[in-house]
Specification:
By secondary structure, this protein is of the alpha/beta class. The protein has three domains: 2-114 and 198-460, TIM Barrel (Alpha-Beta Barrel); 121-180, Oligo-1,6-glucosidase, domain 2; 472-531, Golgi alpha-mannosidase II (Immunoglobulin-like, Sandwich), CATH 2.60.40. Helix content is 27%, strand content 15%. It is built from 16 helices and 20 strands. It has helices spanning 3-6, 9-13, 42-47, 49-55, 89-102, 121-128, 195-210, 255-267, 283-287, 302-305, 310-325, 343-346, 350-366, 395-399, 443-447, 453-466, and strands at residues 22-26, 59-62, 66-67, 79-83, 106-111, 141-142, 165-169, 175-180, 215-218, 273-276, 297-298, 332-334, 370-374, 475-478, 484-489, 494-498, 504-505, 511-514, 522-523, 527-531. The strands form five sheets. An eight-stranded parallel sheet has the order 11-10-9-5-2-1-13-12. Helix 13 (350-366) packs parallel to helix 16 (453-466). The structure holds 1-deoxynojirimycin (NOJ) and calcium ion. 1-deoxynojirimycin is lined by residues 72, 75, 112, 183, 219-220, 277, 338-339.
């Protein structure tokens, strides 16, 4: 018998591929365009698999590529069992998955169970069906309030701005019922009390797993279950695009039964993984999502929210670890994604922002558990906050009455090579303009530069994969000067972070990797180092 067979249950459980993987998040529209229409696609990703292999990631998370009118960048799905022609159709996905597997990388896909597109056949049917019909019963239709039903059924706002309800015109031409959309008008919420809704999701999960996909990222995994009677909510702490644990639309008890049922489907495929988007701050409530019979993993966003300050980073790390510890779950780490400003900019921008982002990359890659890298982080890309108004596509821009610019600034296409835009991302016009200043940030400019951010990530991922010091599920905190933190992994890796503006003495040990040159055993300002 081999060692794993003999090992106690706890060790066996740690043998799943996803428990210490590095996932690379691809925002498909912005990664690489293979056909010159200015929009990234699956063939473009396939062509760049060598790049991801060189970087050293274990798995790829694809943001939505299903059929979609793109009212919310693909999070408005009109057919969950087809790939949008813009991305190359189902054959392109098959080609990508096959080649990724040949290069020993896994592929997970986004699924969007909370809502569909308004172009989904179910919603189109609902519009032509009568109030109270089974077709309407797949969504959340209600009569309006007020004498003539002209007021929305409750006071819920949309996460993207404006009301969360839209009134339809009935087939006979009269003003009719309202439907709920927590996000854009084009994203009607599904009624999760209707058994057909789960059955359809199960069919979608099996459809892609049967094609060889390795799992899913579950959109709004703390949503889906709505409070009975849909009561008015408090608007006191309500902000666009922001999470608030008191928001009664999310994190309702019924959601856990949905996750148990999803898990049962995934258990039919031994290696499949589900990672949920769970915007829940309370540690105990968060942990409930990764109980052994629910999600395998849940995104913890604390590191994506925290400022660059050692004490706050330590608190975020401790909270993220304790949130999952009580249920035996695996911690997850993420500095950014397609919904938040890029870390370089959050940490102050410019050279200092890049230095800090590099330091935080070493912190997150040294922690036990799963790390998610958002495409472009490995190049140290900043947010693009001066996109022209006319280029903005995030529905938040219009729905907020043009007061919130939305998330396009972190979705600008990647610069690959050359000296001017579009830096070989496309041979056509990129769907969002790429800043000319990115000429020094292209893959070409960084790939052979030993000190580039790309090289830092590459070295970090390699060390993380091969060095025994990265083993174990715990960390110990060492004493450290104010504005700094030092911790040690069970396996022996030491990570030191200096968030002050002055150099500090390094802890004892041999330096494996540092984000700034080490001079006189000093760790520079805004830097991190790994030691053994
Ligand atoms: C979360 C996704 O990450 C975001 O991009 C999307 O707008 C919403 N869910 C709605 O699906
Ligand atoms: Ca394309």
């Amino acid at each position: 018998m081999d060692e794993v067979e003999n090992a106690p249950a706890a060790v066996k459980a740690s043998a799943h591929w996803w428990q210490k993987s590095v996932f690379y998040q691809v925002y498909p529209r912005s990664f690489a365009d293979s056909n010159g229409d200015g929009i990234g696609d699956l063939e473009g990703i396939r062509e760049k698999l060598g790049y991801l292999e060189l970087l050293g990631v274990d798995a790829i998370w694809l943001c939505p590529v299903m059929r979609s009118p793109m009212a919310d960048g693909g999070y408005d799905v009109s057919d969950p069992r087809d790939i949008d022609p813009m991305f190359g159709g189902v054959e392109a996905l098959d080609g990508l998955v096959t080649e990724a597997h040949a290069r020993r990388m896994r592929v997970i896909m986004d699924v969007v169970p909370n809502h569909t597109s308004d172009q989904h056949v179910w919603f189109q049917e609902a519009l032509t069906a009568a109030p109270g019909s089974p077709a309407r019963g797949r969504y959340i239709f209600r009569e309006g309030r007020g004498a003539d039903g002209a007021e929305p059924p409750n006071n819920w706002p949309s996460i993207f701005g404006g009301p969360a309800w839209t009134r339809i015109t009935e087939p006979d031409g009269t003003p009719g019922q309202w439907y709920l959309h927590i996000f854009a008008t084009e994203q009607p919420d599904l009624n999760w009390d209707n058994p057909e809704v789960f059955d359809d999701l199960a069919a979608t999960l099996r459809f892609w797993l049967d094609r060889g996909v390795d799992g899913f990222r579950i959109d709004v995994a703390h949503g889906m279950a709505k409070p009975a009677e849909l009561p008015d909510m408090s608007l006191a702490n309500n902000r666009l695009l922001a999470n608030n644990d008191d928001d009664l639309r999310f994190n309702n008890a019924g959601v856990h039964e949905i996750h148990r049922r999803i898990r049962k489907v995934l258990e039919e495929y031994p290696d499949a993984v589900a990672v949920g988007e769970v915007w829940v701050d309370d540690n105990e409530r968060f942990g409930e999502y990764v109980r052994p019979d629910e999600l395998h993993l849940a995104f913890n966003f604390r590191l994506a929210e925290v400022e660059f300050a050692a004490e706050a980073v330590r608190e975020a790390v401790e909270n993220s670890m304790s949130a999952v510890a009580t249920v035996g779950g695996t911690p997850t780490w993420t500095l950014s994604n397609h919904d938040v400003a890029r870390e370089v900019t959050r940490y102050g921008g410019g050279t200092v922002g890049v230095d800090r982002a590099r330091a935080m990359a070493l912190v997150e890659l040294s922690l036990p558990g799963v790390t998610f890298i958002y495409n472009g982080s490995e190049l140290g890309l900043p947010n693009v906050d001066d996109l022209p108004d006319s280029a903005l596509q995030d529905p938040v821009w219009e729905r907020s009455g043009r007061t919130e610019r939305g998330r396009d600034g972190c979705r600008v296409p990647l610069p690959w090579e050359g000296r001017q835009p579009p830096f070989a991302f496309t041979t056509g016009q990129p769907w969002l303009p790429i800043p000319p200043a990115w000429k020094s940030l292209t893959v070409e400019a960084q790939i052979e530069d030993y000190n580039s951010t790309f090289s830092l990530f590459r070295k970090a991922l390699e060390l993380r994969a091969i060095r025994p010091e990265f083993s174990g599920n715990d960390i110990d905190w060492y004493g450290s000067p104010k504005g700094c933190l030092v911790f040690r992994r069970t396996g022996g890796l030491i990570c030191a972070l200096n968030t002050t503006n002055a150099a500090i003495p390094l802890p004892p040990g041999e330096v494996l990797l540092a984000t700034q040159p080490i001079e006189g055993r000093q760790l520079a300002a805004n830097a991190a180092a790994w030691l053994v």
